[in-house]
Every structure is written in structure tokens, then in C-alpha cells.
């Protein structure tokens, strides 16, 4: 691996000790041996959000056999958005692919997102996974359906699924966005607010292999109401101005 890989795969985790090794194996299988411009020049950046199980120990044990792997550790639990931002800030790649650490996202979809980037205009800075065949419980799918409908109505971000963990975006564009807790759920709207275009790409979705979900429908809904108001305010108050050097 070179000092400056073209792609950084960022994976936030909290209490996912049994999902760490299988997911890292899938990431390396999906990306090793590909052309550098097609994801072959990559690093894997795991952010352990102060797990209370053996997640950190499992990651540290894997480093010897996975030279692409880097491990960052939050000394206090800080949440998924902060973990993603920690990983992006530490990343060496100009482009970032994110995955949820529970294994429900398929790393084999990363090359699909890279291929979509190759055929898209340069102003498209975010390629968002779209789970067309979700493998969650009925109640979770129902709650997500209504949450997505309300979000689209309020934010007009033309995105069918913002909760999907697999995304591909430009590092510099992400770091220019306003940061707040839970921002990872609103990346399409925030990118569009910044003047960039976004594209939703159908991806695979799988049942959780091990462990339990860290969210429930109630806490998602309570947090989501405040977040939607805040993001809507940001969009109303945002301004994009073209600049030409004279």
C-alpha cells in the first residue's frame, strides 16, 4: 500500500466483535487486485467507538495480517456521526467509502459505486447506497419508510434512502459540511446544500450476521424530529456563491 491511497474505507463500530473479521475479509476480497483508480489502492480505517466487548482487541489482532488496516479508538463513546468524521479526518484517500460495522452492507458494492463515479459528472460528490431489498424486521422497514417520506418532503433531497451505511463521497467535500451529531443521516441534503450533486445507487442489503442493533424505532424518531428541523433551517439559511478569480 502506498502512503497516499486513492480510497479509504471508513467503518465505525461499537460492540461488533463477531462482525469485525468477516467484514474486513470481505473488504479486502472486494478491493485487492483491482486497478488503483478502481479501488485497488486502498486503506481500511476502523473507528472503535469505545466498545465494551472484544471489538478493539479483535481489530488489533487483525492488523498483523491486514496491512491495509488502521485502527482508531474513541476514549469515550461519541456516536456514529462522530466516528465517521474521525475516520474521514484521519483518512489518507481523496475519496471515502463508508460501511456500517454490522455486516449488513455488502463490500462487493464498493466497486459498483466507484464505477458509477467514473461515469458521472465531476460535480457529483456523493454516491449513496439505496437498499432496494431491505433485510430488516417489518417494523424497522415500516418506520424507515415513513421517516424517509417525511424527510424527502421537508428537505426535498430527492433521495429514497439516507439511512444506508454504504456511501462513496469526496473527502474534501465532506469535511466542508457543517458537523453535528447524527449528520451521517443527512449527507445527501447537506451535500446539495453545499452546491454539489448526489446520486442514489441500488445496493445489496443483508441480515445482521451477529450482535444486536444499537438503535430502536423510538429513539430514531425522537432524535429525527429535532434533526430534521435543524437541517431544514441550515438549508434555508445556506447560500452558494460562484467565485471567479480576476
From TrEMBL:
<dbReference type="InterPro" id="IPR050256">
    <property type="entry name" value="Glycosyltransferase_2"/>
</dbReference>
<keyword id="KW-0328">Glycosyltransferase</keyword>
<keyword id="KW-0448">Lipopolysaccharide biosynthesis</keyword>
<dbReference type="GO" id="GO:0099621">
    <property type="term" value="F:undecaprenyl-phosphate 4-deoxy-4-formamido-L-arabinose transferase activity"/>
</dbReference>
<dbReference type="GO" id="GO:0005886">
    <property type="term" value="C:plasma membrane"/>
</dbReference>
<keyword id="KW-1003">Cell membrane</keyword>
<dbReference type="InterPro" id="IPR001173">
    <property type="entry name" value="Glyco_trans_2-like"/>
</dbReference>
<keyword id="KW-1133">Transmembrane helix</keyword>
<dbReference type="InterPro" id="IPR029044">
    <property type="entry name" value="Nucleotide-diphossugar_trans"/>
</dbReference>
<keyword id="KW-0812">Transmembrane</keyword>
<keyword id="KW-0808">Transferase</keyword>
<feature type="domain" description="Glycosyltransferase 2-like">
    <location>
        <begin position="8"/>
        <end position="174"/>
    </location>
</feature>
<protein>
    <submittedName>
        <fullName>Glycosyltransferase family 2 protein</fullName>
        <ecNumber>2.4.-.-</ecNumber>
    </submittedName>
</protein>
<dbReference type="Pfam" id="PF00535">
    <property type="entry name" value="Glycos_transf_2"/>
</dbReference>
<dbReference type="GO" id="GO:0009103">
    <property type="term" value="P:lipopolysaccharide biosynthetic process"/>
</dbReference>
<keyword id="KW-0472">Membrane</keyword>
Amino acid at each position: 500500500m502506498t502512503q497516499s491511497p486513492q480510497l479509504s474505507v471508513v467503518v465505525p463500530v461499537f460492540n461488533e466483535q463477531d462482525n469485525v473479521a468477516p467484514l474486513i475479509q470481505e473488504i479486502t476480497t472486494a478491493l485487492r487486485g483491482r486497478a488503483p483508480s478502481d479501488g485497488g489502492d486502498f486503506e481500511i480505517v476502523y473507528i472503535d467507538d469505545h466498545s465494551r466487548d472484544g471489538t478493539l482487541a479483535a481489530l488489533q489482532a487483525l492488523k498483523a495480517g491486514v496491512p491495509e488496516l488502521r485502527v482508531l479508538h474513541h476514549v469515550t463513546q461519541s456516536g456514529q456521526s462522530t466516528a465517521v468524521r474521525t475516520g474521514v479526518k484521519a483518512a489518507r484517500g481523496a475519496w471515502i467509502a463508508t460501511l456500517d460495522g454490522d455486516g449488513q452492507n455488502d463490500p462487493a458494492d464498493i466497486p459498483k459505486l466507484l464505477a458509477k463515479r467514473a461515469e458521472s459528472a465531476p460535480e457529483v460528490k456523493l454516491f449513496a447506497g439505496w437498499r432496494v431489498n431491505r433485510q430488516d424486521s417489518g417494523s424497522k422497514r415500516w418506520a424507515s419508510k415513513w421517516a424517509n417520506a417525511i424527510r424527502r418532503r421537508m428537505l426535498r433531497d430527492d433521495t429514497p434512502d439516507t439511512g444506508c451505511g454504504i456511501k462513496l463521497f469526496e473527502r474534501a467535500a465532506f469535511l466542508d459540511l457543517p458537523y453535528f451529531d447524527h449528520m451521517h443521516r443527512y449527507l445527501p441534503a447537506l451535500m446539495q446544500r453545499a452546491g454539489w450533486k448526489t446520486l442514489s445507487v441500488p445496493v445489496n442489503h443483508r441480515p445482521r450476521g451477529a450482535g444486536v442493533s444499537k438503535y430502536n424505532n423510538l429513539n430514531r424518531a425522537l432524535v429525527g424530529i429535532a434533526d430534521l428541523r435543524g437541517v431544514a433551517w441550515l438549508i434555508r439559511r445556506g447560500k452558494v456563491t460562484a467565485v471567479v478569480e480576476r
